[in-house]
Fold this sequence. Notes:
Blueprint: H1 3-15, H2 18-25, H3 29-43, E1 48-51, E2 54-57, H4 59-81, E3 90-96, H5 103-113, E4 117-123, H6 126-134, E5 140-144, E6 154-169, H7 175-178, E7 183-185, H8 191-202, E8 210-212, H9 216-224, E9 229-233, H10 234-242, E10 246-249, H11 253-256, E11 257-265, H12 272-291
Parallel strand pairs: 3-4, 3-5, 7-8, 7-9
Antiparallel strand pairs: 1-2, 5-11, 6-9, 6-10, 6-11
Helix pairs in contact: 1-2, 1-3, 1-4, 2-3, 5-12
Amino acid sequence: MHTRDLxxxxxVADLGSINKAAQHLNYVQSNVTTRIQKLExxxxxxxxxxxxxxxxxxxxxKELLPYARKIVALVEEMKAIAKNEETPSGKLxxxxxxxxxxxxxxLSRYIEQYKDVDLTLSTGVTAxxxxxxxxxxxxxxxxxxxxxxxxxxxxxxEVFNEKLVLITxxxxxxxxxxxxxxxxxxxDGCGYRAxxxxxxxxxxxxxxxxxxxxxxxxxxxSVISGLGVAYVPYSAVEEYIAKKQIRYYELPDExxxxxxxxxxxxTDHITPALKKFIETIKLVRSxxxxxx
Length: 292
């Protein structure tokens, strides 16, 4: 069994298509099909269901996929560690919750200094990103510190602390009044959502309506138009508040203070690319603290 076959298996599973996997890996489609069939023969199990709409993982394929991810990731780590640690290269797959305002500063500093690293960035909610890091789908992620991030298999670096605020359009209302408006929230698994729901539960408040919106931009636009209220970091809406497009309300500290951390898998060796990324986070954090 070759690690290249496991990489092909992982890529086909991730993209849900043999054709897309072939394009991504720069292989001819027939070669990908042959390697998958060879792997199925070696494992003596069918990994994919083939149908007119494409392919889907079998139950056995779903069980084996995490092992394939882990093996591929370990091989990549081994290659990276063998290289010069001061000039890292290779892939670095990072993700973040959508409202990390200082993320561009960290990324620009890193990319400028380590041009040989192929860094990719995606977004998601905390619970989802924790699972992806643990399942070797990501090298690391910026998430909201919570019970989900206390997993003993994870390491974490604090990035910054901030405060969540309830926001509505600029019409003057009491806190009781805005809590009766529809709540505009990110997907389940979002740390901000969990904080607000804890406040509502502890105060016996039942939301009249909850609407899930996919992005911060959509959420802010909906709030400004008067569709409802949202719970977001103050830093994400400071500009809108200054322009009087948004009014904000504070909740008690136990429901509003959050810490953004960068998580990665606990391991004996981390790749030079990831090591330098963590160093960049700490450098940017210390510079921000010096300005305070």
